[in-house]
Amino acid sequence: GEGEVNGDGIPEAKGEAISEVKGDDTPATAKSDSKGPGSHSVISVPLRILPVGDSITEGKERNGNNGWRLPLRNHLVQQGRSVDFIGTKETGDDNPDNQHEGWGGQAMVVIQEKIMANNILTQHPNLVLLGAGTNDCNEGFGLPPTEPHESEIVRLENLMDAILCENPDAALIVAQITDNLTDLKDTERVRKFNSQIPGLVEKKRKQGFRVGIVDMFNAVGYNLDDSGIHPSEKGYNAMAAAWFEAIKLLPEEWIQPAREPGSKAPAFWSQQETLACGALKGWDRDYFVTNKSQSAWMYPPKEDMNQGLFGGLLANPSFLRTFNQPDTALQGQIVSTYTLGCIFGAILSLFTGDRFGRRKNVVLGCGFIFIGGILQATAPANISPSFRMITGRIIAGFGIGVNATTIPMWQAETSRPHLRGRLVAFELTCPVGGFVLTNWINFGFTYLPDNEVSWRFPLGLQSLLALGTAGIVPFQVKSPRWLCLKGKEGEAKGAIARLYAKPVEDDEVYESLELMREATEREKEEGQVGWREALRNERQQTLRRILLGMRANVMQQMVGVNVVAYYLPVVLERSFGFSTRMSLILSACDSMQWMFWGAVAMWAMERFGRKKLMLFGAAGQSLCFAMAAIGLGVGSKAMNGVAVVFIFVYYFFLRPLVHGYQIPVPFGDQLESSSEHWRRDGDDDELGLR
């Protein structure tokens, strides 16, 4: 072959090895008898080789149960190289060096679990030969049946990341796998998988890793045994020759002396992770990295904004006229359908939270908010009630339910424990910015009382903010806990380093990864846990933990917050006799001091603790509403003033002691009190009830 590429993107030339990348980052191919730039006939550094793969790596029934490993060792020894194959499995006759990690009949996700569990990676090979994916492309043979799985190429990347996470200074050669002649669909899957591997190799090279590729598909060709999957003896010998040529082509600087078993990885990481660590120090660093958009940017299109928006629209003459002056019962229905959507959105997160991850879930929620906002802003006039308006409210609420259950958890998973309370408090203060914004927008549009834009524009604004939120999500750090759960430990380690603004080899980063790894391993060992366990109150007190979070949020919504948030302009106008414009001014000013008191939460929550603040806040709110009721009951001008004052004072207790503390307390308490497995589901449950 002359190195041509067929229609499937697979090199035609047999025995090609790709181990270099040109200056333009394009993988360079070299035929088996060539010596390209940087290639060497003899490598002086002793090789500690870790073969990783499936039954083809194991090599049963061919070459004395050695497969390609013994012929490759003979090639290397004949070249004068010192060779030591390592692994926890020993297979092969007449082979003094028969260790390997060839797991027959297993898919890549299981192979990854095996090599992580047996700690072979801590033996620190300086060369890893990875050939896996045959079972994955054989209709998912060997995959665990109880969980959804990523695509084959993503599984390969996860396996590579696990290896490189522990051994970032090692050279890794990944193989394009041999053909599968058992079924045409399997052959197509193999070809598609192989065509994606060069791009993955290029990606890892750009990240700074020493990754090469060898084409076993063409090296072996049709030299397969009767199974149509495993190579014949001739095929295994061809594989050995291809591995040998790929090793010969490695730049000399790629092969470093093997580190002592059990030692930590050196300071070696991608430029992206190094730059992301930055130079921020101390608490300000954590505050900046974990909150710069997960709170300030992601939360404007949340329920606080909607509360401020509809509180003003219920007093907007154009809005009321458009929908034929709906009575109070119908107004309540329009408002509450939004909350109904939030409930369904929280339930949806039960199924999408861990499956899609935090970032995709937030984008999904923003999509619902965008669609819902457009439907509300374009609702037709003179229809009471408007089907489009109510549908838009439900859909927007759906998105809010998804985001309201995802973002606080994401925040908690990317915060250090000693900062989690104040950071969650800060995150939940940011939505009040949307509340303040919409209150002042409603006031500004009182100067256009007869124009429908006075209510259509504010309703459409949430769609614009949802687009902004979705647009910035890809730039945020993934949840390390979710990455560990999906087996992406290499990415998890990088995410922790970015969040802590420390090098990837730092002890704190390493310890945090180990804790997450242990937690997720325990979670996997527990297996799929059904709702029946949630209804039991056994050793882990699962039911009690979930009910604690639910109870706090149910009571938080029963303290009268929605009367003040949704209906304050209406209450001030109808019960206190203020004009529409003055009611909106007072509501806007009230929202500003709500945000101010929320900022106090970042300091007080960790200082005084959750329980004391919840009790003090609830007592203060009771006092405020009691005084407001007395003032309205007396009805004099002076007592009306007292009632208004206590409505304003109510926010002192509501924001710092309920929305500042009781919302972070239910949010944070649910996240901290739930077991690892039930953290997401418990959070969804209590948000749904709230």
From TrEMBL:
Gene3D superfamilies in UniProt: MFS general substrate transporter like domains (1.20.1250.20), SGNH hydrolase (3.40.50.1110)
GO MF annotation, one: carbohydrate:proton symporter activity
Keywords noted in UniProt: Membrane, Transmembrane, Transmembrane helix, Transport
Bias kind Basic and acidic residues: ranges: 11-25
GO CC, any one term: membrane
Annotated TM spans: 330-350, 362-383, 389-411, 423-443, 455-477, 584-604, 613-632, 638-654
Keyword flag Transmembrane helix: yes
A Pfam family the protein falls into: Sugar_tr
Subcellular compartments: Membrane
Membrane topology summary: Multi-pass membrane protein
Highest taxon of the lineage: Eukaryota
CDD domains cross-referenced by the UniProt entry: XynB_like (cd01833)
Chain segments carrying region Disordered: 1-42
Domain Major facilitator superfamily (MFS) profile: 270-690
Family of this protein: Belongs to the major facilitator superfamily. Sugar transporter (TC 2.A.1.1) family.
Official protein name in the record: Major facilitator superfamily (MFS) profile domain-containing protein
Native species: Zymoseptoria brevis
